Amino acid sequence: MSESRNSRLRRPETLTALGIILVAAGFLIPTSNLRAISALLPAAMLIGLIVLSVVLLLADQRTASAGEKAAPVTKAPKRVIGAFLLIVGYALATDFIGFYVSTTVTIPLVAWVFGYRSPLGLLIATVIVVGTIWAIFDFGMSQDFPTGRLWGG
């Protein structure tokens, strides 16, 4: 017999999917107060997170209905905690030193932490990502990103 309904809802992937859906939906509500052009990117990303989380939820429940045991939450908890701390650090850095400086530092740092060690590749990836963001949003759409409290913005 497969797991009970109650234990099926306590599976790590199911809980993760439900948590992401709730948090993304909560963050989606304030986007309705933004100008349409400003809300476009965050709303699209949040809706994408919700859709992917629903897919994860359905896949995990299908796996549970087949009687398969839930996989452990993580095989490398230090990496998960480190990734979470990097996200929190990036958010704080964006507030204090601005979006572009934070992003320019964070992209190679995250890649380095997760094992990519080519300095030239890190430089190219950083220039492409930051340059594309600037070209689309700052140059193309005239949207300003946070400059940070330390720079007076």
From TrEMBL:
<feature type="transmembrane region" description="Helical">
    <location>
        <begin position="80"/>
        <end position="100"/>
    </location>
</feature>
<protein>
    <recommendedName>
        <fullName>DUF1468 domain-containing protein</fullName>
    </recommendedName>
</protein>
<feature type="domain" description="DUF1468">
    <location>
        <begin position="18"/>
        <end position="143"/>
    </location>
</feature>
<keyword id="KW-0812">Transmembrane</keyword>
<feature type="transmembrane region" description="Helical">
    <location>
        <begin position="36"/>
        <end position="59"/>
    </location>
</feature>
<keyword id="KW-1133">Transmembrane helix</keyword>
<keyword id="KW-0472">Membrane</keyword>
<dbReference type="Pfam" id="PF07331">
    <property type="entry name" value="TctB"/>
</dbReference>
<feature type="transmembrane region" description="Helical">
    <location>
        <begin position="120"/>
        <end position="140"/>
    </location>
</feature>
<dbReference type="InterPro" id="IPR009936">
    <property type="entry name" value="DUF1468"/>
</dbReference>
<feature type="transmembrane region" description="Helical">
    <location>
        <begin position="12"/>
        <end position="30"/>
    </location>
</feature>
